[in-house]
Every structure is written in C-alpha cells, then in structure tokens.
Amino acid sequence: MTAKRAQLKPKAPDARLAEILKLAIFAVGGQGGGVLNGWIVDLAERNGYDVQATSIAGVAQRTGATFYYIEMLPKSDRRPVFSLAPGAGDVDIVIAAELMEAGRAILRGFVVPSRTKIILSTHRQFATVEKVVPGDGISDPEKVVEAVHEQSAEMLAFDMQQIAEDEGTVISAALFGALAGSGFLPFSVESFRETVQASGRGVEASLAAFERARKGASEGEDAKEAPVTPVSEGKEQIRGPASLIETWRALEARISALPDPAHHMATAGLKKVVGFQDAAYGSAYLSRLETLAKLDSKAGGTKKNFSFTTAAAKHLANAMAYDDVIRVADVKTRAGRFEEIEAEVGATPDHHVTRVTEYTHPGAAEVVSLLPSGIGARIEANDRLMGLIDRLVNRGRHIRTDRVGGFLQLYALAGLRRWRRSLLRHGREMAHIDDWIRQAEERLPRDYDLAVETLNARRLIKGYADTHARGLSKFDRVMEGIDVVDGREDAADWAGRLIWAALKDAKGEALDGALKTIRSFAEDKAVA
Amino acid sequence: MAERSFKKEIEQLRLGAGTEFRGEGILAITKALLENGVGYVGGYQGAPISHLMDVLADAEEILDELGVRFEANASEAAATAMLAASVHYPIRGAVTYKGPVGVNVASDALANLASGGVTGGALIIVGEDYGEGSSIMQERSHAFAMKSSVWLLDPRPNLPSIVDAVGHGFALSEASNSPVMMLVRIRACHVHGAFEARDNVRPPLTVRDALANPRRDTTRVVLPPYSYQHEQTKVAERLPAAVDYIKEHGLNERFGPSDQTIGLALQGGMYNAVIRALQRLGLANVYGDTDIPLYVMNVTWPIVEDEFLDFCEGKDAVLVVEEGMPAFIEQSLRATLHKAGSSTAIDGKGALPEAGELTGEVMLDGVTTFLKSRMPTLLPADIRSPNREDKSPRPDLADVVPPRPPSFCTGCPERPIFAAMKLVEEKHGEHQVAGDIGCHLFASMPPFHIGGSTMGYGLGGASNAAFDGGGEKRAISILGDGGFWHNGLNSSITNAVFNKSDGVTIIVDNYYSAATGGQDNLSSRADNPNKSTKHPIKKALQGVGVDWVRQIDRTYDVTKMHDTLEEALTTDYKGPKVIVASSECMLNKQRRERPKMQAAIREGRRVEKPKFGVDQDVCTGDHACMRLSGCPSLTLKTLDDPLRDDPVAWIDQTCVGCGNCGEVADAAALCPSFYRADLIHNPNRFDVWLARFRRRVIDWLQRRRDKKRLSWASP
C-alpha cells in the first residue's frame, strides 16, 4: 500500500477540463433570463455539445436579481461531470443584462482578468433603494464600467435594452445577438438563428433585435460610445411676438456682463424665470444676480471661479419659479405637451386617438394661495373658514385635458399668471427669498464657501403640499445648523454635509443625526 | 392556471423506451413517477418544486390515460395524509412539497404515516429550498427523516441518478414498509440534462380498483398497543430491511481507487461540487474519474454502517462532506467508527464551514484544507505553499451595486394596499404588523417597511394572538388568499373569532396562490375544468363568525383602501375586523390578457390601452411617489437641465396602466405630476372626429396665449 501511495503525485488538471465552457448570466427578474438560458442550451446541443444548465429563480422572478449558470463541452463517448454552481475566478463568459448586474458579477468574484469575457447592457434599471432617496440616489455607473474594464479579459458593452425596446421584444434576444456577434462561443451565427427560430414565439421581433445586437457586437461598440446618461435634448428655439423677442435679446445681453463661469447657468435660469412669468420678472432676476455678482467679485470670486454667482443663478431661478398651481396649470396646457405625450405612448395621430387624464388633488392652502395677499392672509388666519374651504375643495380631481371643458379649467387657472405678483403665495415666496439671499450675502465676505452652501440649501425646497412643507422645514433646520457652525473654519464642509444628510431620507433622520453632532461640539465649545 | 404552462414540455412524458428525454430535473422526476407505476400523486406547490405540481396539473390527460389520480392538496399535511392510501393498499403514491417548511407542515401526518408503516411505496419528493435563491429559513429536512424513521434519499444531481432514485425510492419503501423522502436541491430541480426514457407503467392496482375492494389492518392504526409495537418494528424489522435493500441494490456508490489512505464521504447531492473541486486540484478528470476514493451516500438516512466501515478500512482519514447544520451525518459516522473501535480519523465541519451552502469556492477551500493536513504531497506545489497572493484585489463595488431583493411586480395590486397602510401610519403612527408567507411579505422590504415577522403559511393572524386582548392601538395582520386556504382560515381566523380578538386582518386576495407560481385556489375567479373555484373568502369568513368584514374589489382605489383601514383601526366594534382586498395578480393577468389585446389590435378592433406618465416640468424630484410605490416601471430620469440637481420621476414602457401612481399621488395629495394617457388603437370615426374637433379648439387657445408671451420649443 505504501508503494502505491508513493506513486500518487500531484498532477496538472485534466487538459479537457480547460475545454469546458462556463457561462453565467446575471439578470433582473422579468428580463427573460430563463429564455436566454434555454436558447444557449439549445444552441450548445445543436452544435454537438454536452450541456448542463441551472438557474436560481425562486421568488427572484419578481424583479429581484436572478442568476443562471451553464457548462458545456464537445460530446464524447462519456458524459462529463459538470458543476451546478460556478467557482470564483472559474467563469469564461459573463452576460449581464443590466449595468449594475455586471457589478454584482464582479462583486461575487466571477469576473477575472485572466479569462472572463463579459457582455453587458449599459442601460440602468434602477433598484428601489436608488429610487426612494429624496435627492439623487443613483449609483455611480462609472465605477462599474471602470471595474469591468479593469477586471475582464474582453468586454462588449452597449445599450441592448434600447435595441430590444425598439424592436418590441425583451432584452434576452439582444443579449443572444451580442453573444453571437462577440464570437465568444465557437458556434456559427446561423446556428444561433436556428435556435431563435425554433423557439416559436415572437420569432420575428426576437430575430430583429438579435440581428441588430449581433451587428453592434461584431462591429465592436464600446461602453464609452454608449450613452450612460441621457443625451442632450438639443437647442430650443424661442417663439413669441417680435417686441418680446427683442426684449429677450436685451436680457440675454445682460448675461454677458456677468462673470463667465455663470453664463450657462444664468441663461438657463433666465429662461425658466421668463417662462414662469414674463420678461419683467426676468429682468428682476438679472438685477438680483448682477448685485450678487458684484459682491462675489468683491469677495474674491475670481479665485473661486465665481461659484457664488453660479449657485445664485441656479437657486434663485428655481426659487423665483416656485411650484404654484398657476405654473402646474400652465405646464399642463402649454403648446407641444400633447405631442410629447403622444410620442411617449407611441401614438401616431393617423392611427390612434390619445386621451389624457390629469391626477390632481388641491387643498384649501393651494386655493387660498391664489387669492390676493390681503384677503388670503385674513382667510388663512381663520381656522374655521379654512376648514370649510378644505371640505369644499379637498378631493382628488381627475381632469380630462384632451377635452375642451377640462382643458379650459386648467387654461383659466394658468391665466391667473397676469395677477400672480399680487397673490398671497407670491408675497410669501419673495419674503422667503429676501431672507435667504440676505443670509448668503452677509456671509459672503467672511466665509465664501459657506455663503455658497447657504445658497445651495435652497435645493431642499421642492414639491407640493405636505412634501413642500417638509422641504421647507428641512431647509429651516439646515439653515439653523449653518448658523451654529458659522464662524468655524470647516463651516462650509458641515453645511454641505447637512444638505447631503437632508436629502438622504424623507423623515430627516440623517439630518437629525448631523444636527446633533453639530450641536454637541457647539456645546463643547461653550463649556470650554 | 399556473403562470407557466408546460403544455409543450409534458409531451415528453409520453416518451417510450429507447428515446432520450431532455429537460429540467423536475420534469424528469415526473416522468420517472409514471415509469414506476405510480397510482396517485399530489402535493403542495412552492419553490423549487412548484413546477412539479404545475406539470402534473397540465398533464392530467396523460395521468387519466394511465389511471393515475392527481390531487392538488390543500397543504403539505393534506398531501402527506393522502399517502394513507398506501398504508393498506399496495399502490404507489408520491407527493411533493418544499423543504423544510413544507415538511414542517406535513410533520404530523408524516409521523403517523411512518409509525403505522406502508404497504405500497410511499415517496415524498422534497424540494430542499436551501442556499442561494432560497426564500425561507435555512434548516434541514434531514431531522424529520431521522426522528420519524423515514428513509432519506439524496441522489447525485444529474437526471439519470435522480430518475433511478425515484424507482429505488418506491421499491425501498415497499421492502421496508416505510415512507421514503427524496431530497432535491434548488439547482438540481432546475438542472437541464438528459436520460434514457422507459415506457410508462399503469399502476397494477388503481385507486379506483382499491375503492371497490376496501381493506383494513388494525395493527397499522397509531393507537396503543400498536403504536408501541410500531416503535419496536421500526428498529427491529423496517430498518434492517431498508439497509438490506440499500446494500443489495448498491444505492450508495463508491468511486475511485480502493487502496488510498484518505477518502471523502459525501451526500449524493454534493457529488458534482466535490468532483469540481477535485478537478480543479488535478485529482479528477472531466468524466469524474477520481484519484481520491469517494463514498457517495445517495441514501443519507439510514446510515449503512458496515458499508461505511468497509470504506474506511485502511484509511487514515475521511472527510465528511455534509451541507447545513447540525452535522447529523458526520455525528452518525463518527459514532459508527467509535463503536467499531476504528482508528480512521474524521474531518468534516472545521475543514468545511459549520453552516451555509457548500458553493464552488467553499468546497474547493474545504477539500484543499483536508488534503493539506492529511496528504499534502497530493497537492500541486502552488496550492501546498502559495508563495504569492493568487487573488488580485477585487474592486470594491459593495457600496455601488445596489441590493435587488425580490419585490412586487409592475402593476401589482398589492402595492396600493401597502401604500394605503403607509398613509394610515403617517396619520395614526406605526402599528404592530404581522406578516405571512406570500408575495405580500415583500412589503417588509423597501420602500414600504411594513411588517416584521412571518411565522408560517397562514399564520399571519395567529402570530398576533398575544395582542388579541387589544390595547391603545390595534394589531394588524396580513394573510394572502393562498395562505388563507392553506391554513389561515383555521389557525388565524377562527382563532381570532374564538378568542375575541380586537385585531385587524387584511386578506390580500390576488385570485391565485401567486408567490408559488400562480396556482388556482378555492377563491380563484378562473374557470378551472378540473377544480372547484369561485368560493368567496368573504363567505368563509362570515361562516366562521366574523361579523366585521369589508370587501374591496379594486385595491387600486387607494383612498377607499385607506379609509377602510382607518375605519377598521378606529371603529368601536369589538371583535376581529377583516378586510378582504381583492384584485387580480397583474403577472397572471398580463400573461392572459396581453396576447389577447395584441391580437385584437392586429385584427383592427378598437382597443383602449392605458399608460401613466409624469410631467417632468411639474415633478420636483422628491421621489415621495416612489417611497409609496416601488413599482419597477416608476423610475428615475436625469434631465439635461443645469438647474436640476435631482433626477425626476419617469414611467417607462413596461407600465401596464394599473393606476397606482395616480391614485397614490391623489390619496396622499403628493403632487399633480401624474397623468394617464389612454391610447385608443383602431379608433372609430367618431373617436377621430371628436379628437380632431377638440384638438382644434385647444390649439386655438394655445396659439392665443402664445401670442402674448415668450416660449421655447425644440426646433
């Protein structure tokens, strides 16, 4: 026995082992991962391979992450023993049906530079945790794209979801096409086609998406060319009576007197403010901005790339173009909106008719905000009256704006624009802006960065009704917090952190935490 | 009808001898049942064996031809109780359910069945929901087999082995008068492979035949004195008979050389993972020819002691590869060696992790650790003493890649129920909420964060029993229609009535047992030719004495949902309050309706198709709507506008127009961004005329306004 034992020496793995092709699919439930899995099995069998495939579907078929695994080897007289699960660093081809799923494949160690080729669709299907953040919760796609570049032996990335949508099918067909075009599998394109044809359902659309993706893959589209962020919508043209356009040009000319870095933002801001009200309102916006730009220069704005003026251009425009009932009615009745909706639902006017129903829910506060300042304020002070109005108006209203009657309701509301500057809401917004700008101005000479953050805090005010009230309260708390840190060397950092925290969650728990920290060291200082 | 149709696949069930069967593991098991003369089949669905039930339901024609009875049992307990037909009659019966949760439910019937013993082969196919993709607590069904003297098969995860195990399972059951459990893990259930088919066999005695000639045998009844005898019989007769059968038919397999001084003893289900580890270490070739001796236990209970001792003969050390905890097999094998006074050392947990799935990586590490300590010369030099870190650092994407747990589908009718609950909570504060099993448990995840417990199928109400006495706020429990009929009516509802509970129960009725794959149940609205459906839940509630019942027939009416829930929480009525919230599962509805709609559009018929949208200039990017929805189609869009810091809401093309986002925005008075666009395909002439007229008026109004203002438009 001892002699036998001595004969057993370490060996290199069986050479045929390296011939086993191992393929993993990372998808999101509903993307047709199971179909793709079935196609690859069929393809392998068609080409004389022994193949084994497994899947982890379970409840994940409902929008969760799903996973499929396939091994194949040219047929011989004996059946090989395949594994039912991949090993880290032991996968040849990874197919990711969504950008972050490619990241998941890397996280799990299935993508290694020495051998793993990856096919991924660069589109995003946002996860719930990204969507529920009150601010911007979208994960950084660049980090994943970079990691894929770094970790994969070869990578093929473009937006296959778009191709599938264009052809009226699901992404599995486009992924299969990309796999065919990639040449990662030693099978003829024709046999890929045969597999799709044999599947028997929606073959035409599948094949169309298959061919486009195959072409895209063989021509070597790259992630860099693929738009990860939405494409620019192009330059818009101004319309209106000649006299007004002339006024507009004069306003535009005033922008060139502002510091260069702020031009882009100020142009966008001016457009928004003029669209919201009128040219005179735009002029008021610019006057304010001009004053702030002067202060900016005095405070050494050149060194700071005039970020104070740029921040002011942005947030002042947003603050002046506040979200009132008139604006909503205006947006919903403006020219061109109906055509946009038709495009969104894929309607062609010759073949379809589109009906549009608005979901609105006004409350007493919204109604009273449309009254002239004096009367409005008096009514608002009267709780019983407010309650009565609320009972009268507070209910969901579904308005058909494709009908003349429904359209006229909103059209009339939008028409209140003429009197907007005398209404209750407007007075309140202007007072709020004055107070906020004053604080920023006051800080500017002492602490430039803190002044910028003071302006940035305006980002917190958004939404309607309760959401708006919550935003306002967050804004107030952040401004209080900024007051506490004002005077510290790192005040701007803290202010930035407060704004960031306020956008983390709806209830403001992160903000509470940050405020607590600030107060604690403020107290320490007081004690010291 | 279940969400997936197997009409195409089941044609393979007719294959005869000499042909090759290709398909999934579950389908192979079904075919094997027919090849082995099964007389009746049943079970309760649940991943990963749902498809077995779905295949059987779709295969009723073939089953009828063979005289095989198929029953969709009300629960796993009911399924196991059905095996009572094999107690007195020599009829082979098979049932299926998931483990260990299904086995838990079945355990009462299982213990009784096993005590009295069987005459005909009784086979229980357990889809062991363990490891990646599992939806339940991580435990083992193994313990049930041990305590009830049920023999446990754990075949190698390839189709020929699984199919063989079915045949041997029946025969083993008959040879030892004991029920047999066959365990198949998730990946094996879904593994695609091939095996050589045999002809289907008609049961020698059908259940119809048996009904004509009833039999009984008092000694099988679980009552003293027989129950005492059963316990003795289990060890004195049934166990030895089982061991003899296993040995005689070589159910456990040995691979590799017989004269090596180390070896591996493993569960059959672990075979492929072990071979892959050995392949990677250069100790096995692609066909699984191994240099290390393997003792593959395709039967993991009972332990065939002399077989194992024989394997250990001359070996210094054996690694026991056993998945999950506790390590029942390892303990038994250690005891066996100890009793025999053997000097063979056992490695097991330690080299391998105490708990968790034995994935490719874990298995490779475990086998390597064992070999390193027991026979390092076998290992390639770089593994024996790695002189460099072979793993390059992986980029850390943990904070970038978002978690993606399963959630409600697009247009799910359960979403508005939980949106309404969130709104009620905003007003009345948080409540004690008990969840149940079913899709509705996804409410515990973002964005809803509702409910924090699930005690078992149909036990949502029962798990609030401690709060039945009431208090300042009422406890809320949730049940699905599937859970309601499985166990909930009895364990949760009658319990609440009898104990005068002051709580509130919401029954989420989506017309199917949806989470398990959309099977029909008693209250399903579908016409099912083989089953009796359309029994309203409300009637059942009233029948057992629930007086406060509110039926909601359109869950998407968030305002009504909200008001009803608020009423239940605040009413003076004492006693259980039950809200039945009914709307059809959107996944199943779409599968049925979408092809019909597409056909109608093609044929030129007038079809109205709703879709929701968001005015991006009205949306302020606060995402409050998403915190009350989580719908996959309600998503984000980054605008090309320097003034906007945050992405706005956007509804993608997968929207089915259920109305939830509009209703939520309305009920919560969120914002006026949402609109519904009804697209009329193939409009009639009146539609077109009216639309043109309206458009002309609106265009005129818009032009009128634009004459006096500045606006911007894309060229």
Care to describe what's here?
The complex is a heterodimer of chains A (528) and B (715). Chain A is α/β, with parallel strands linked by helices. Helices cover 55% and strands 11% of the residues of chain A. Chain A has helices spanning 2-7, 33-46, 99-107, 128-131, 141-151, 160-166, 171-182, 189-199, 203-218, 242-255, 263-276, 279-298, 307-320, 325-333, 337-345, 364-368, 373-381, 383-393, 404-415, 424-443, 448-456, 465-485, 491-502, 509-527; strands spanning 21-28, 49-56, 65-74, 93-96, 117-121, 154-158, 237-239, 352-360, 397-400. The longest helix of chain A has 21 residues, at 465-485. The N and C termini of chain A lie far apart (81 Å). With 715 residues, chain B is an alpha/beta fold. In chain B, 37% of the residues lie in helices and 16% in strands. Chain B has 24 helices and 24 strands. A seven-stranded mixed sheet of chain B has the order 3-2-4-5-7-6-12, sandwiched between helices. Chain B has a five-stranded mixed sheet with strand order 9-11-10-13-14, with helices on both faces. In chain B, strands 15-16-17-19-18 form a five-stranded parallel sheet, with helices on both faces. The interface between A and B is large, with 159 and 144 residues.
